[in-house]
Amino acid sequence: MSVRVLVVGIGSGVPGHLTGDAVAALEQVDVFLVADKGAAKHDLVALRSELCRTVISHDRYRFVEVSDPERGPDRERGTEAYRAGVLAWHQARARRYAEVIAAEVGSDGTVGFLVWGDPAFYDSTIRIVDSLTAYGVDLELTVVPGISSVQLLAARHRMVLNRVGQPVHVTTGRRLLAEYDPSLGDVVVMLDGDLTCAGLVSAHPDLEIFWGAQLGLPDEALAAGPLAEVLPGIQATRADLRAARGWVMDTYLLRPRSPGA
Fold this sequence. Notes:
By secondary structure, this protein is of the alpha/beta class.
């Protein structure tokens, strides 16, 4: 069977974050596949559904929720075990998506995946879609970019991510402590559920943080200042957001304070 697959970046899930190309792509979709991650994160499905109702000019599309496989204890795993676990999770997801596509779409249909932010930044959707061919899905893939949380973070703090002529390093909370060095320049940290930047406070007292959570949503939260001073408030705000929603999506920039600042 041959299907078109559209992977579309949707920013924070509000219509204003969609490009014209993204809206045009959504208009073409027959079936949107969304991961069912349980009750605590079901409002992420609702936000996607509401976005489509707002911007798509017809009702000839469907949402199909696909039960998400268990991912495993990522925090307890070493690097190699973590990579192996993620690969197994991707394969399990792809297998389930292939089964649903065969049952719900058939030949010559168009499948849509709505990606929070932009598909290029720490998102597994493109890799999973590429692996669908191993499960008998003949596909034509198109990727439509979206506004990323990194862009939103910079906009909300009214800043440029890099200093003049200096680099920007993008990494994850899992890797931050092992690889941080001031020579990296400004460091954007994603996927950091534990705010591991706390481990840098004593060795790098000049660090500033520019943090944002739920960017673009009604409960958006921002904080900025010397890392040692504002970190306790960020930790408390993050805990409140998780208690209210069941999930938190945040990112931050670390920047050594300029002399004389």
